[in-house]
Amino acid sequence: MRRFLALPEQAWLALAFILRAAFALKVGSRMIQIDENAFDAAAWTLASTGSLGEHHIMPLSVSYFALFFLGGHHPVLARLGQAALSTATVWLLGRATREATGSETASRLAVAVSAVYPFFIYYSGALMGETIYLFLLVAGVWRLLRGSWAAGGFMLGLSALARPEGAYIWAVIWALGGVAVLRRTWPAKAWALAVLCWALPLAAWCARNRAEYGKFALDVHGGITLLHGSEYFELNEQDTAVAMEAIEREPWYQEAMRLPPVERDEALRRRAFTFMRENPGRVVGQWAAKFVSFWRFYPRTDKVYIENRHSHPTAGAGRWALVAVSLAFEPWLIVLGILGLAALTRRDARLWPVPLFIVGTMGIHILSVSQMRYRLPAMPWLILGACWWLGERLASNPPAYRR
Question: Is the entire prediction scored with pTM above 0.90?
């Protein structure tokens, strides 16, 4: 173990990039997740025309991918760009762990674990919003812990332009931070500066949508997701494509599709929330199932994966290989991560937004749609907690540490 921890950080960062780049090159231009197709198409439209066109999608990851498409449509270049960004996240998580725990051992462990964590590697190769969201999320929290309230708030605001769920979660955290200000446990000026800087990129995107669609709105895609997770939950559990086929046959959906984007999204949201109000028992059962899906230790073995040129979720690995890889990491990271974060938060009151962020992420996906993928934003913090917990045990047991 001592040799393991003594490896220089640069070696782990090099390994992190090699693993991610190798996966990017293996995937090449083929889409492994069906959602990639929308991001890829929007990025190519932006690179070739300077506009998102008819693509109603959050802008940050699309803009990042478009940079790699300026010389032509080469998805593998964008994947390599994400490999670099994900490697930077490994470095940032090491810094955030050191800042949160004061432990060099925990920091080294966090770098090592996140360098080889399979799902950071997998999603760095998927052209979606996850990788840039994680990068900005970890960077933002690190800057807050360092006392850089303006930079931290701005990065967290930007992160919501990759995945809009971040805006709602941090809105609650900032509101509770206002209570902390009233109790004089948070500095008022720093809190106000962080909230202002957080709101700036969100307000800019909402203003763009107002100019484009006539409504000051952050996201115009959430309504269909809520329907997938409520009225069409059972079909969506088979596959999103199965749920969409059923929805597209409905007259009310065909009518909604004739509306402008914001009004269409509002109509779909209203239908989803109406279903929830009228079917409380069924919805509670769905929420229980989605809670299990969010925290499960390995991918479902009963799900039929659609394999075609638009979807290749196994990326060439066998079903049981994915289960084995998951079981090698998920159980201990989740259990020890929760234990570690609970102890750290009791020790250092600065850290309470971190477990609240995890709960908020879970809550949004219990309300909408849930699977292991959506736990990914919680994993940096569970890695942080687990590595601190392990580091404390190593420090309190010198003989075992020296072996």
Answer: yes
